[in-house]
Amino acid sequence: MKPVYLDYNATTPIDEEVANAMMPYIREHYGNPSSSYLIGRQSKEAVEEAREKVAALINCAPEEIVFTSGGTESNNLAIKGVAFANKDKGKHIITSAVDHPAVINVCAFLNNHGFDITYVPVDKDGRVEPASVEKAIRPDTILISIMHANNEVGTIQPIEQIALLAQKHGILFHTDASQSVGKIKADVKELGVDLLTIAGHKLYAPKGIGALYIRQGTRIENLMQGAGQERGIRPGTENIIEIVALGKACELAKRDFDKNQLQMRTMRDLLLSGFQQKLGGKVKVNGNMAICLPNTLSVAFDKVNAHELASQISEDVLISTGSACHSGCTEISSVLKAMHINRETATETVRISTGKHTSKEEILLAIDIITKAIDKL
Ligand SMILES: Cc1ncc(COP(=O)(O)O)c(C=O)c1O
User: Fold this and answer.
1) Residue with the nearest Cα to atom 8 of ligand 1?
2) How are beta strands 210-214 and 195-199 bridged, if at all?
3) Which of these is catalytic: 60, 107, 292, 325?
4) Residues near 205 by Cβ (< 8 Å), separated by ≥ 6?
5) Does the CB atom of residue 206 touch ligand 1 within 6 A?
6) Mutate to test the pocket of ligand 1, among 179, 212, 298, 327 (most ligand atoms within 8 A of CB)
């Protein structure tokens, strides 16, 4: 029997339809999109069709999409690209204490290169207060980068409100939407952002592909120099196979949005109510379910070490402790720390995340296995 996979925030499997869409580009269509003969033009068309599908999902123009290698590269391009292109205006950047290392460490790099960074705090639910952002704004602030939804606790940030502040002060605004795209609505016009990061492997495309939305007219410098692909912003011969995959994944995310969201939420809620029924007061939820991604559950089981629990069940149910991107590390997660969750609760915290294919049978099995393991521990 296959283990029950409940770590969709770490990564997702490649969707069957996505895999099928990739196949012709693995086996047959090898033309370079920059070549002018037929098979080159066909590849170019495939790239542009994929760009349209990505754009349609987040409601922007296709020309505003740049393909990258994933969430990390999109964040690097957005933050460093804006910082380098706008340093004549100022060298101050605002981010949050709960952003992903792919944002925090980019800011730390810029800090070593003469930029000033403010990390705004969060409340007990992991939410950035727009007023804290406004307080941090200075005359030399050139960029605000706040994630759309958190990878560990699922907290959705008030992006629209922060965007209004950014606009009022003439500051560019980037959001890392690696965890939100495909799970909740991520419409760049409604959000009011200038730049938005997409990570393919979080929405059933393969690992190693992503995209960055760059609002038309945004001043940004490219990080790599080369031939002029991706309008010169991200040169290098296009990764057509995975670009086609991301396009298909975005098409599916749009087509099946309501169905997927309902399934993820129903399964996540079934899991939580199962825990509460069987374990009662031993179950403590981190964050606030009213402003949480529909698929994410960050939960502490009283007096149960999360690492022991995860390893005990690791052949049957796959979950993570802290953030999967840096698992193996015994440091308390910086996200839980920023939420002022005490050390004891943090060491008892597991992250469980459902996916669009998670079934009731899987959830019932997971509840059974996890609660039995907890009784044993
Ligand atoms: C919020 C967030 N941002 C960025 C990333 C990095 O994305 P990628 O793995 O595609 O580089 C992740 C991956 O865990 C993430 O959760």
Assistant:
1) 71
2) antiparallel
3) 325
4) 14, 15, 18, 242, 245, 246, 248, 249
5) no
6) 179
CATH code: domain 4-12+257-376 is 3.90.1150.10
What CATH number labels 16-255? 3.40.640.10
Annotated catalytic, 329? Answer: no
Average pLDDT, stretch 44-55?
98
Give 209-234 pLDDT, tens digit per residue: 999 999 999 999 999 999 999 999 99
First vs last Cα of the chain: how many Å apart? 24
Closest CA to 92 of 36, 140, 53, 58: 140
| Per-domain residue ranges of the chain | 4-12+257-376, 16-255
Q: Is the CB of 295 under 6 A from ligand 1?
A: no
Mean pLDDT of the chain: 96
Best of 325, 333, 334 to mutate for ligand 1, by most ligand atoms within 8 A of CB? Answer: 325
Q: Is the CB of 260 under 6 A from ligand 1?
A: no
Instruction: List Cβ neighbours of 179 (8 Å cut-off, separation of 6 or more).
Output: 9, 147, 148, 149, 150, 151, 154, 202, 293
Q: How many CB atoms lie under 10 A from the CB of residue 139?
A: 8
Strand partners, 301: 283
One-letter-per-residue 3-state SS of 226-286: CCCCHHHCCCCCCCHHHHHHHHHHHHHHHHCHHHHHHHHHHHHHHHHHHHHHHHHHHEEEC
Q: Is the CB of 351 under 6 A from ligand 1?
A: no
Per-residue confidence (pLDDT) for residue 330, from 0 to 100: 65
Is the minimum distance from the CB of 178 to ligand 1 under 6 angstroms?
A: yes
